[in-house]
Amino acid sequence: MRPFLFRFLKARLWLFDRLQLGETKATLLWAGIIGVAGGLISLAFRGGIHAVQWLFTGQSGGLVQIAASLSYEHRALVPAAGGLLAGAALSFGMRLLPRQSSTDYMEAIVLGDGAIRVRSTLVKSLSSLMSIASGGSIGREGPMVQLSSMLASFVGRLARLPTPRRQLMVACGAAAGIASAYNAPIAGALFVAEIVLGSISMESFGPLVVASVLATVTTREILGGRPVYEIPLFEMSSKWEIFPYLLLGLVAGAAAPFFLRFLKASEALFGRVNAAPYGKLALGGLIVGVLSIPYPQVCGNGYSVVTSVLHSAWPWPALALILFLKLLATGATVGSGAVGGVFTPTLFCGAALGALFGIPLHRLFPSWTAAAPAYALVGMGCFLAATTHAPLTSILILFEMTLDYAIVLPLMLACVTAYYVSRGIQTASIYSESLRRKTEEAGAPPLDRLHVSGLMRPDPPLLIETASFLEVARMFAKYQYHYLYVVDREKIFRGAISLHDIKPVLNDPDLERVRGILALDLIRPSFPHLTPDAPLKIALRVFSTHTGERIPVLDKLSRKVLGAISKKDVLLALAHDGFRHAPD
After folding, report:
1. Which of 208-212, 249-253, 311-315 has the lowest mean pLDDT?
2. Can you give the pLDDT at residue 361?
3. Hey, is 259 helix, strand or coil?
4. Cys-Cys crosslink for 323: which of 191, 256, 352, 569, Cβ 3.0 to 4.6 Å?
5. Does residue 233 fall inside a structural domain?
6. Across the strands, what pairs with 462?
7. Does 217 lie in the same domain as 72?
8. Is the pLDDT of residue 326 over 90?
């Protein structure tokens, strides 16, 4: 038994010397689990949409096609009924739950402790399911991301991860939700890094990528790997056409702030309605239903209309009218309090705006400009960049949704232009305003007030100084740590044993001599440590001179071991706090 144990530890030493993964491997493993779970729950939500559609209409498929096949009365009443049920789910479902903190995944990452409540999330997801399946003008990506983040939060609590690691797991869940919703693994990771976390560091970006990739693989296994939008071959008609795309970026950047203000005004308008949530949501659904009587294209998230715009030439007046009505439908749905995403409706507005820009341009200069669908495609990306203030994510998600590399050059220029124009008009993005308001309400502590005690993990594995070498070896094999802490009978810290320090003993052929070695004979008495009241800046400074992944936390007076703190947790906590207090 002992030779096998020694061979196992030798193999572990060999892997550690070459991979140097430390605690990263556990984080990546959890990220992978979250990615698969996020992909599965997104598939389940898609199935739920089709089931509820069938209950409402007796059909399942595209909302526009379903609405067009219904009678006028049925077409008007289905979104109203969906809104009524969605509001009832919110009103009565939340009453049955104890008072809890917000379930929003962005708040859980940026402001909270990474905890997302399961029951309240399920209530909101049920409400969202009713709104989406009945034709509300919102995207399904919102509840998909929220459900995936909820699972990630549950995993973080189950694994008893500290707050920064749990927040990272929720971020991985959000990335998995975006990736599975749009079949876009790169954009899924970048969306969370750029918009939610505000930084792209490998401490967080690596797990985000793992979660996004595995979520995409999971959904592709069921749905296939076809791009979200299959488009005709994109090409620039001439080198001079780069200037119209630049102008399109200017137009989209100028229009986006007014779109955001319109959504805010819609919320304020419905806020004045003296009615219960189910009444407001039913009213919002009724507005969508009435608008869909002459124009069923306003129903749903706009995916089928965008596909049509990308493949065919629309008359300018008809497209302008559909865009106007779609804006009204989106305002009615979002303003009434429906739970869902605005990502896909934003893509609709961008596609319509781009096509409206491209139609007269192509008529004036047919020889050196492309047809309107090309401008619709670029318009989707630059309008998204202008509303989210995330140009990199917008560029990559459009590329991944089309898998056409030819769009990248005009898309990059238009997205960056739209971002700067929009930010110059209005600093708040579609996501940042509510977060900034809640950040101010939360009154987060400044960086200097974050201490080791907030990240310390209590009761780390300890070795008694009289433990035999065999006990030391078993402890290393059991806990997969690279340093073990040695204490006396009173739990007073004596030092640490490094996995590398036992390498000569593992190679010693004299087993009798090995039996006589005790933990006390192997310790490093001069080992770095921290106290619970030490600021995280001090912890980071200590880690900068220490190669280990963990440092023991000792009582200042007695030197008893209280816990241990992880380098990854410190880095994540500092990065997280830096984002919370970064100027806009």
Report:
1. 311-315
2. 92
3. helix
4. 352
5. no
6. 485
7. yes
8. yes
User: Read out DSSP for 71-132?
Assistant: -HHHHHHHHHHHHHHHHHHHHHHHHTSPP-----HHHHHHTS-S---HHHHHHHHHHHHHHH
Length of the chain: 584
> Both 98 and 40 in a single domain?
yes
pTM for this entry: 0.76
CA distance 466 to 529: 22
Reported as type and span, the H/E element at residue 396 is helix 391-402
Domain closes at, from 408, 426, 442 = 442
Give the DSSP H or E segment for 524.
none
Instruction: Check pLDDT > 70 for residue 257.
Output: yes
Q: Are residues 217 and 267 in the same domain?
A: no
d(CA 301, CA 138): 5
Q: Are strands 462-464 and 457-458 parallel, antiparallel or unpaired?
A: unpaired
| Domain that residue 133 falls in | 20-223
Predicted pLDDT of residue 36: 94
Contact 420, 555 (CB under 8 A): no
What is residue 237's predicted lDDT score, i.e. its pLDDT? Answer: 77
**What number of CA atoms fall less than 13 Å from residue 315's CA on the CB side?**
3
pLDDT of residue 191: 85
- Would you tell me how many other CB atoms lie within 10 Å of the CB of residue 512? 7
Same domain, 29 and 128: yes
Alpha-carbon span 156 to 160, nearest angstrom:
6
User: Structural domain tally of the chain?
Assistant: 3
Calculate mean pLDDT across residues 120-142.
Answer: 89
Question: Which one has a higher pLDDT value, 488 or 203?
Answer: 488
Q: Give every strand in the sheet of 493-498, ordered side by side.
A: 462-464, 483-487, 493-498
Q: What tens digit of pLDDT does each residue of 284-307 get?
A: 999 999 999 999 999 988 888 898
Nearby residues of 280 by Cβ (< 8 Å), 6 or more positions away: 87, 270, 273, 336, 337
Max alpha carbon distance in the chain (Å)?
Answer: 93
Q: Where do we find the tokens 């009565």?
A: 92
Report the chain's terminal Cα–Cα distance, integer Å: 60
**Alpha helix segments (H runs only) across 336-445:** 343-364, 372-388, 391-402, 408-425, 432-442
Our measurement of the distance from residue 125's CA atom to the centroid of its chain's CA atoms, rounded to an integer in Å, reads 17
Q: Report the C-alpha gap between 276 and 265 in whole angstroms.
A: 19
What amino acid is encoded at 231 in this protein? I
- CA–CA separation, 431 vs 439, rounded Å? 13
**Average confidence score pLDDT of the chain:** 83
Do the strands 457-458 and 561-566 form a parallel or antiparallel pair, or are they unpaired?
antiparallel
Give the CATH number of the domain where residue 405 resides. 1.10.3080.10
* 483-487 vs 493-498, strand pairing mode: antiparallel
The model's pLDDT over 458-477, given as tens digits with 9 standing for 90+, comes to 888 888 888 887 787 777 77
**pLDDT tens digit string along 154-169?**
888 887 777 777 888 8
The CA distance from 169 to 167, in Å, is 5
